[in-house]
What we know:
The chain is of the alpha/beta class. The chain has helices spanning 13-20, 24-31, 39-52, 58-65, 82-96, 110-122, 140-147, 171-184, 200-215, 232-243, 259-271, 305-321, and strands spanning 70-75, 100-105, 127-130, 152-155, 165-169, 190-194, 225-227, 253-256, 281-283, 300-302, 329-332, 335-337.
Amino acid sequence: MKKAKVNNGNVTLKDVAVALGVSTMTVSRAINDKANVSANTKKRVIETAKKMGYSPNLVAKSLVSSKTYTIGVVIPKISHSFFPEVVSGIEEASNRENYQIFLTNTSDDFEKEKKVIDALRAKRVDGILVSSSQNKEDFSYYEKIIESGLPLVFFDRCIENIGASCIGVNDFAASQQITEHLIKKGFKQIGYLSGPKKVSIGKERFGGYIAAMNKYGLDIDDKWVVEKGYNEDDGYQAMKKLLALSEDVRPNAIVAVNDPVAFGAMDAIRDAGLKVPEDFAIVGFTNDIRAELVSCPLTTIHQPAYEVGKKAASKLIKTIEDESEPIEHVQLITKLIVRKSCGS
Protein backbone atom coordinates (compact mmCIF):
# COMPACT_ATOMS: atom_id res chain seq x y z
CA MET A 1 0.00 0.00 0.00
CA LYS A 2 1.28 3.45 -0.89
CA LYS A 3 1.79 5.89 1.96
CA ALA A 4 -1.29 8.04 2.45
CA LYS A 5 -0.45 11.68 2.00
CA VAL A 6 -2.51 14.50 3.39
CA ASN A 7 -3.82 16.48 0.45
CA ASN A 8 -4.75 20.10 1.07
CA GLY A 9 -6.67 20.20 -2.21
CA ASN A 10 -9.75 18.24 -3.21
CA VAL A 11 -9.13 14.62 -2.30
CA THR A 12 -11.15 12.22 -4.46
CA LEU A 13 -12.25 8.63 -4.05
CA LYS A 14 -9.68 7.72 -6.69
CA ASP A 15 -6.89 9.30 -4.58
CA VAL A 16 -7.92 7.18 -1.60
CA ALA A 17 -8.14 4.08 -3.80
CA VAL A 18 -4.64 4.64 -5.21
CA ALA A 19 -3.22 5.11 -1.71
CA LEU A 20 -4.73 1.81 -0.60
CA GLY A 21 -4.16 -0.12 -3.80
CA VAL A 22 -7.85 -0.98 -4.20
CA SER A 23 -10.55 -0.03 -6.70
CA THR A 24 -12.47 3.23 -6.56
CA MET A 25 -15.68 1.18 -6.32
CA THR A 26 -14.38 -0.54 -3.19
CA VAL A 27 -13.61 2.81 -1.58
CA SER A 28 -17.07 4.13 -2.53
CA ARG A 29 -18.81 1.11 -1.07
CA ALA A 30 -16.77 1.30 2.14
CA ILE A 31 -17.38 5.00 2.71
CA ASN A 32 -21.11 4.62 2.02
CA ASP A 33 -21.29 1.53 4.27
CA LYS A 34 -22.54 -0.73 1.50
CA ALA A 35 -22.48 -4.51 1.31
CA ASN A 36 -19.74 -6.65 -0.29
CA VAL A 37 -16.93 -4.93 1.62
CA SER A 38 -15.30 -6.57 4.63
CA ALA A 39 -15.27 -4.82 8.00
CA ASN A 40 -11.46 -4.68 7.91
CA THR A 41 -11.45 -3.03 4.49
CA LYS A 42 -14.08 -0.52 5.58
CA LYS A 43 -11.96 0.39 8.57
CA ARG A 44 -8.82 0.85 6.45
CA VAL A 45 -10.66 2.95 3.88
CA ILE A 46 -12.29 5.25 6.45
CA GLU A 47 -9.04 5.74 8.39
CA THR A 48 -7.09 6.51 5.21
CA ALA A 49 -9.78 8.86 3.89
CA LYS A 50 -9.72 10.81 7.16
CA LYS A 51 -5.92 11.07 7.12
CA MET A 52 -5.97 12.35 3.55
CA GLY A 53 -8.70 14.91 4.30
CA TYR A 54 -11.33 13.38 2.03
CA SER A 55 -14.86 14.74 2.31
CA PRO A 56 -17.82 13.65 0.17
CA ASN A 57 -18.60 15.78 -2.85
CA LEU A 58 -22.28 16.25 -2.11
CA VAL A 59 -22.85 18.29 -5.27
CA ALA A 60 -21.54 15.48 -7.46
CA LYS A 61 -23.50 12.91 -5.48
CA SER A 62 -26.70 14.90 -5.84
CA LEU A 63 -26.25 15.13 -9.61
CA VAL A 64 -25.93 11.37 -9.82
CA SER A 65 -28.69 10.45 -7.37
CA SER A 66 -31.08 13.44 -7.77
CA LYS A 67 -30.72 13.94 -4.01
CA THR A 68 -29.57 17.10 -2.23
CA TYR A 69 -28.43 15.40 1.00
CA THR A 70 -30.36 18.00 2.96
CA ILE A 71 -33.31 17.66 5.32
CA GLY A 72 -35.66 20.32 6.65
CA VAL A 73 -36.38 20.66 10.36
CA VAL A 74 -39.55 22.45 11.47
CA ILE A 75 -39.88 23.36 15.16
CA PRO A 76 -42.63 25.39 16.83
CA LYS A 77 -40.64 27.33 19.44
CA ILE A 78 -36.87 27.79 19.42
CA SER A 79 -37.01 29.48 22.85
CA HIS A 80 -38.37 26.30 24.49
CA SER A 81 -35.24 24.50 25.76
CA PHE A 82 -36.63 21.12 24.66
CA PHE A 83 -36.26 21.94 20.98
CA PRO A 84 -32.61 23.08 20.88
CA GLU A 85 -31.74 19.76 22.54
CA VAL A 86 -33.76 17.90 19.92
CA VAL A 87 -31.98 19.80 17.15
CA SER A 88 -28.58 18.84 18.61
CA GLY A 89 -29.61 15.19 18.35
CA ILE A 90 -30.86 15.73 14.80
CA GLU A 91 -27.54 17.31 13.83
CA GLU A 92 -25.51 14.43 15.23
CA ALA A 93 -27.48 11.77 13.37
CA SER A 94 -27.62 13.82 10.16
CA ASN A 95 -23.92 14.68 10.10
CA ARG A 96 -23.04 11.04 10.66
CA GLU A 97 -24.88 10.20 7.43
CA ASN A 98 -23.49 13.23 5.55
CA TYR A 99 -26.79 15.11 5.49
CA GLN A 100 -27.11 18.82 6.24
CA ILE A 101 -30.12 20.42 7.90
CA PHE A 102 -32.19 23.53 7.22
CA LEU A 103 -33.67 24.65 10.56
CA THR A 104 -36.91 26.66 10.63
CA ASN A 105 -39.04 28.06 13.47
CA THR A 106 -42.82 28.52 13.12
CA SER A 107 -43.54 30.45 16.35
CA ASP A 108 -46.28 27.84 16.91
CA ASP A 109 -48.32 29.23 14.01
CA PHE A 110 -49.71 26.86 11.37
CA GLU A 111 -49.83 29.45 8.58
CA LYS A 112 -46.14 30.17 9.10
CA GLU A 113 -45.50 26.42 9.30
CA LYS A 114 -47.00 25.94 5.83
CA LYS A 115 -44.84 28.75 4.45
CA VAL A 116 -41.59 27.36 5.85
CA ILE A 117 -42.41 23.85 4.63
CA ASP A 118 -43.16 25.22 1.15
CA ALA A 119 -39.81 27.02 1.25
CA LEU A 120 -38.03 23.81 2.25
CA ARG A 121 -39.69 21.94 -0.60
CA ALA A 122 -38.54 24.67 -2.99
CA LYS A 123 -34.98 24.01 -1.79
CA ARG A 124 -35.50 20.36 -2.81
CA VAL A 125 -34.79 18.89 0.61
CA ASP A 126 -34.84 15.10 0.62
CA GLY A 127 -37.20 14.92 3.61
CA ILE A 128 -38.68 16.95 6.45
CA LEU A 129 -38.83 16.55 10.24
CA VAL A 130 -41.83 18.31 11.80
CA SER A 131 -43.05 19.12 15.30
CA SER A 132 -46.44 20.53 14.39
CA SER A 133 -47.82 23.89 15.53
CA GLN A 134 -50.59 24.21 18.10
CA ASN A 135 -53.19 26.02 16.02
CA LYS A 136 -53.59 23.83 12.93
CA GLU A 137 -57.18 23.09 11.97
CA ASP A 138 -56.80 19.94 9.87
CA PHE A 139 -54.19 17.52 8.58
CA SER A 140 -54.87 17.70 4.83
CA TYR A 141 -51.76 19.81 4.23
CA TYR A 142 -49.53 17.06 5.65
CA GLU A 143 -51.46 14.38 3.78
CA LYS A 144 -50.75 16.13 0.47
CA ILE A 145 -47.03 16.27 1.27
CA ILE A 146 -46.97 12.57 2.08
CA GLU A 147 -48.96 11.75 -1.06
CA SER A 148 -46.39 13.70 -3.11
CA GLY A 149 -43.76 11.17 -2.05
CA LEU A 150 -41.63 13.53 0.06
CA PRO A 151 -40.52 11.64 3.23
CA LEU A 152 -41.97 13.20 6.38
CA VAL A 153 -41.35 12.23 10.01
CA PHE A 154 -42.98 13.88 13.02
CA PHE A 155 -41.32 14.27 16.41
CA ASP A 156 -42.71 15.14 19.86
CA ARG A 157 -46.05 16.40 18.54
CA CYS A 158 -47.32 13.43 16.58
CA ILE A 159 -50.12 13.05 14.07
CA GLU A 160 -51.42 9.50 14.07
CA ASN A 161 -52.83 7.42 11.20
CA ILE A 162 -51.60 9.82 8.55
CA GLY A 163 -48.98 7.61 6.91
CA ALA A 164 -45.85 9.01 8.57
CA SER A 165 -43.60 7.88 11.41
CA CYS A 166 -43.34 9.77 14.68
CA ILE A 167 -40.71 9.79 17.43
CA GLY A 168 -41.78 10.93 20.88
CA VAL A 169 -42.61 9.64 24.36
CA ASN A 170 -45.62 8.01 25.98
CA ASP A 171 -47.30 11.28 26.94
CA PHE A 172 -50.40 9.53 28.32
CA ALA A 173 -48.50 7.26 30.73
CA ALA A 174 -46.12 10.01 31.86
CA SER A 175 -48.95 12.44 32.57
CA GLN A 176 -50.82 9.77 34.49
CA GLN A 177 -47.67 9.06 36.51
CA ILE A 178 -47.09 12.67 37.54
CA THR A 179 -50.77 13.21 38.37
CA GLU A 180 -50.71 10.09 40.54
CA HIS A 181 -47.66 11.51 42.29
CA LEU A 182 -49.77 14.48 43.43
CA ILE A 183 -52.61 12.19 44.48
CA LYS A 184 -50.25 10.05 46.56
CA LYS A 185 -49.03 13.24 48.23
CA GLY A 186 -52.57 13.70 49.50
CA PHE A 187 -53.99 16.17 46.95
CA LYS A 188 -57.54 15.52 45.78
CA GLN A 189 -58.58 18.82 44.17
CA ILE A 190 -56.24 18.81 41.17
CA GLY A 191 -56.62 21.23 38.27
CA TYR A 192 -55.20 20.90 34.78
CA LEU A 193 -53.73 23.59 32.53
CA SER A 194 -54.10 22.16 29.04
CA GLY A 195 -52.72 22.90 25.62
CA PRO A 196 -54.93 22.53 22.53
CA LYS A 197 -56.16 18.94 22.40
CA LYS A 198 -55.95 18.77 18.60
CA VAL A 199 -52.17 18.49 19.12
CA SER A 200 -51.13 14.99 20.21
CA ILE A 201 -49.35 16.09 23.38
CA GLY A 202 -52.42 18.09 24.41
CA LYS A 203 -54.75 15.13 23.93
CA GLU A 204 -52.49 12.45 25.42
CA ARG A 205 -51.33 14.38 28.47
CA PHE A 206 -54.88 15.45 29.29
CA GLY A 207 -55.93 11.82 28.90
CA GLY A 208 -53.28 10.74 31.39
CA TYR A 209 -54.54 13.27 33.92
CA ILE A 210 -58.13 12.03 33.51
CA ALA A 211 -57.01 8.40 33.84
CA ALA A 212 -55.21 9.10 37.12
CA MET A 213 -58.14 10.98 38.61
CA ASN A 214 -60.56 8.22 37.58
CA LYS A 215 -58.25 5.50 38.92
CA TYR A 216 -58.45 7.01 42.41
CA GLY A 217 -62.13 7.92 42.19
CA LEU A 218 -61.53 11.67 42.35
CA ASP A 219 -64.02 14.18 40.99
CA ILE A 220 -63.00 16.67 38.31
CA ASP A 221 -64.78 20.01 38.34
CA ASP A 222 -65.04 21.39 34.78
CA LYS A 223 -63.83 24.75 36.13
CA TRP A 224 -60.52 23.14 37.13
CA VAL A 225 -59.55 22.43 33.51
CA VAL A 226 -58.38 25.45 31.49
CA GLU A 227 -57.27 25.10 27.87
CA LYS A 228 -54.87 27.70 26.50
CA GLY A 229 -51.56 27.20 24.66
CA TYR A 230 -48.08 25.86 25.33
CA ASN A 231 -46.26 29.05 26.30
CA GLU A 232 -45.62 30.92 29.57
CA ASP A 233 -48.24 33.61 28.97
CA ASP A 234 -50.78 30.85 28.31
CA GLY A 235 -49.96 29.38 31.71
CA TYR A 236 -50.21 32.78 33.37
CA GLN A 237 -53.64 33.52 31.87
CA ALA A 238 -54.94 30.00 32.59
CA MET A 239 -53.85 30.20 36.23
CA LYS A 240 -55.53 33.59 36.62
CA LYS A 241 -58.84 31.92 35.71
CA LEU A 242 -58.34 29.38 38.50
CA LEU A 243 -57.30 32.09 40.96
CA ALA A 244 -60.54 33.93 40.20
CA LEU A 245 -62.48 31.03 41.74
CA SER A 246 -63.34 31.21 45.41
CA GLU A 247 -60.95 29.41 47.77
CA ASP A 248 -63.49 26.73 48.65
CA VAL A 249 -63.99 25.88 44.95
CA ARG A 250 -60.60 26.19 43.30
CA PRO A 251 -58.05 23.34 43.21
CA ASN A 252 -55.00 23.29 45.47
CA ALA A 253 -52.76 21.37 43.07
CA ILE A 254 -52.05 21.90 39.38
CA VAL A 255 -50.83 19.68 36.54
CA ALA A 256 -49.45 21.78 33.68
CA VAL A 257 -49.19 20.42 30.13
CA ASN A 258 -45.52 21.48 29.97
CA ASP A 259 -42.91 23.38 31.95
CA PRO A 260 -43.34 26.80 30.26
CA VAL A 261 -47.04 26.69 31.15
CA ALA A 262 -46.08 25.73 34.72
CA PHE A 263 -43.64 28.66 34.91
CA GLY A 264 -46.36 31.07 33.79
CA ALA A 265 -48.75 29.63 36.37
CA MET A 266 -46.13 30.03 39.11
CA ASP A 267 -45.74 33.70 38.15
CA ALA A 268 -49.51 34.21 38.40
CA ILE A 269 -49.56 32.55 41.82
CA ARG A 270 -46.72 34.79 43.00
CA ASP A 271 -48.39 37.93 41.61
CA ALA A 272 -51.55 37.00 43.56
CA GLY A 273 -49.52 37.06 46.78
CA LEU A 274 -49.61 33.28 47.14
CA LYS A 275 -46.85 30.69 47.26
CA VAL A 276 -45.78 27.34 45.79
CA PRO A 277 -46.09 24.79 47.34
CA GLU A 278 -47.72 26.29 50.46
CA ASP A 279 -50.87 27.46 48.64
CA PHE A 280 -50.64 25.50 45.40
CA ALA A 281 -48.65 22.42 44.48
CA ILE A 282 -47.71 22.38 40.80
CA VAL A 283 -46.03 19.97 38.38
CA GLY A 284 -44.90 20.30 34.77
CA PHE A 285 -43.70 18.22 31.85
CA THR A 286 -40.42 18.35 29.86
CA ASN A 287 -37.70 19.06 32.46
CA ASP A 288 -36.87 22.46 31.01
CA ILE A 289 -33.38 23.70 31.88
CA ARG A 290 -35.00 26.29 34.17
CA ALA A 291 -37.04 23.74 36.14
CA GLU A 292 -34.45 23.34 38.89
CA LEU A 293 -33.46 27.02 38.85
CA VAL A 294 -36.80 28.71 39.59
CA SER A 295 -37.45 29.95 43.14
CA CYS A 296 -39.36 26.76 43.94
CA PRO A 297 -37.79 23.98 41.83
CA LEU A 298 -40.39 22.29 39.63
CA THR A 299 -41.42 18.64 39.79
CA THR A 300 -41.65 17.49 36.19
CA ILE A 301 -41.29 14.71 33.63
CA HIS A 302 -37.91 14.38 31.94
CA GLN A 303 -38.13 13.84 28.18
CA PRO A 304 -34.99 12.53 26.43
CA ALA A 305 -34.93 15.39 23.92
CA TYR A 306 -31.50 14.61 22.45
CA GLU A 307 -32.45 10.98 21.83
CA VAL A 308 -35.75 12.06 20.28
CA GLY A 309 -33.78 14.17 17.79
CA LYS A 310 -31.29 11.42 16.98
CA LYS A 311 -33.95 8.80 16.42
CA ALA A 312 -36.15 11.14 14.39
CA ALA A 313 -33.30 12.04 12.05
CA SER A 314 -32.19 8.43 11.71
CA LYS A 315 -35.75 7.37 10.91
CA LEU A 316 -36.13 10.09 8.28
CA ILE A 317 -32.83 9.22 6.58
CA LYS A 318 -33.75 5.52 6.51
CA THR A 319 -37.08 6.50 4.97
CA ILE A 320 -35.32 8.67 2.38
CA GLU A 321 -32.91 5.91 1.41
CA ASP A 322 -35.31 2.97 1.51
CA GLU A 323 -38.90 3.28 0.30
CA SER A 324 -39.77 0.06 2.13
CA GLU A 325 -38.83 1.50 5.55
CA PRO A 326 -41.85 0.80 7.80
CA ILE A 327 -43.97 3.50 9.41
CA GLU A 328 -43.43 3.50 13.18
CA HIS A 329 -44.62 5.38 16.26
CA VAL A 330 -41.63 5.19 18.60
CA GLN A 331 -42.07 6.13 22.26
CA LEU A 332 -38.93 6.73 24.33
CA ILE A 333 -38.77 6.32 28.11
CA THR A 334 -39.47 9.29 30.40
CA LYS A 335 -38.55 9.83 34.06
CA LEU A 336 -40.36 11.51 36.95
CA ILE A 337 -38.17 14.23 38.51
CA VAL A 338 -39.39 15.14 42.01
CA ARG A 339 -38.59 18.60 43.37
CA LYS A 340 -40.09 21.03 45.90
CA SER A 341 -43.05 22.39 43.89
CA CYS A 342 -45.34 19.58 45.01
CA GLY A 343 -44.26 19.76 48.66
CA SER A 344 -41.61 17.03 48.48
